[in-house]
Amino acid sequence: MSESLVGATLVGRYQLLSRLGTGGMAHVFQARDLNLQRMVAIKLLREDLISDPAFHARFLQEARAAANLSHPNIVTIHDFGVEAHEYFFVMELVSGTDLKTLLRRRRRLAAPEALAILTQACAGVGYAHRAGLIHCDLKPQNILVAPDGRTKIADFGIARALSTIDPLETSEVVWGSPQYFAPEQAAGGPPSPASDVYSLGVILFETLTGRLPFAGEDPSALADQHLRAPPPSPRSLNPSIPPALDQVLLKVLSKEPAARYRTADQLGRVLSGLIPPAEGAALPASFPAAPAAHPEAPTTALAPAPAEGMDWLAIVLALLAFLAVGGLLPLWLWACLRYPACPLT
Q1: What range defines the domain where residue 8 resides?
Q2: Nearest Cα to 197, choosing from 138, 281, 112, 109?
Q3: Could you tell me the end-to-end alpha-carbon distance of the chain, in angstroms, rounded to an integer?
Q4: Residues 6+ apart with CB under 8 A from 275
Q5: Which of 98, 137, 196, 246 is labelled catalytic?
Q6: Are 136 and 67 found together in one domain?
Q7: Of 342, 278, 286, which Cα lies nearest the Cα of 121?
Q8: b/e map of 263-291 (b: 16 or more CB within 10 Å)?
Q9: Global pTM?
């Protein structure tokens, strides 16, 4: 059914050119905005979900959640519409691929490249956290990587507003991806920004090692491992991972949310400090790398300031001060000698 839509035009404006992929809730098309003459991506609710009001609400929630987030590391939402029971929203078209596809091609990435991508992902997710939103479904498929290394977060379909979360809530239905969700999500508990941090840790683990920290035959087995099994050391799977990065990953994959970094911003700052100086250009502006010391710069002493020209203004002022004091001296002597108590008599 989705292929038959290629060539169709939605609301007289968006011409569908090709299907880019299909997710759990929607098809994604490359399209042309005929009004503004630009290429965009169209996310179209799947046919089998059109008659379900709950999915209508989730679809609209995703569009609204992402539309309220304006950040260079989050996919921009342009428009939302309905035509002939087709629910869709329009977003920026990101050239390149998603991180999952990139890993299928290359298996794993070197630490500097992986850190540059995940640091940008942390910048986007951290912005959402500051805006009061938890993504709740972070996975490599939702991290888009452009050819120049720019990274953007997509798919806020099950995002939760912090203001709507009850710390005591429990749920028998667990939303998210079992390979990447946090232990508290696996247990049906309320998510928090630390839940997104855990998911980012799983993604970074996979990006560096080429495998997930936990594997199971079904979602319940995966959930149990997230809840109880200690993660393997990433360095044991890839010895080229720096020891400091290995320790950061083990901290991020802690079972207790309080033992992790509280927000993606905090994790991003830590990861940016682990990127070698030569890779600093790949960092987003949100987490600038520390400036590298110049090889010829002194470390314990300051270089002498360069010699400057003579300060004639200071010389003139000093001369005037001397003349003023010199002119008062005879007057003081004359006044003193007029009195018998003068010490000079």
Answers
A1: 3-92
A2: 138
A3: 121
A4: 112, 115, 116, 119, 282, 283, 289
A5: 137
A6: no
A7: 286
A8: bbbbbbbbbbeebeeebbebbbebbebee
A9: 0.76
The pLDDT value given to residue 156:
85
CATH number of the domain within which 38 lies: 3.30.200.20
The β-bridge relationship of strands 26-33 and 14-22 is antiparallel
- In the block, residue with structure tokens 């609301």: 11
Roughly what angle, to the nearest 10 degrees, separates helices 264-272 and 111-130?
150
- Of 258, 282, 306, which residue is a domain's last? 282
As for how many domains the chain has, the answer is 2
User: Do residue 56 and residue 203 come from a single domain?
Assistant: no
Phi, psi of 254 (to 5 degrees): -65, 145
Beta bridge partners of 83: 86
- pLDDT single digits (tens) 260-271: 999 999 999 999
Q: Is residue 253 part of a domain?
A: yes
Q: What is the mean pLDDT of residues 247-256?
A: 97
* Weakest-pLDDT range from 130-144, 162-176, 212-226, 232-246: 162-176
Say if residue 113 is in the same domain as residue 241: yes
Residue type, 72: P
Using alpha carbons only, give the angle 230, 265, 226 rounded to the nearest 5 degrees.
20
CATH of the domain at 273: 1.10.510.10
Annotated active-site residue 137? The verdict is: yes
Tokens at 161, concatenated: 């507003």
Check whether residue 211 and residue 180 sit in a common domain: yes
Q: DSSP strand E in the chain: where?
A: 9-10, 14-22, 26-33, 38-45, 77-83, 86-92, 97-98, 133-134, 143-145, 151-153, 160-161
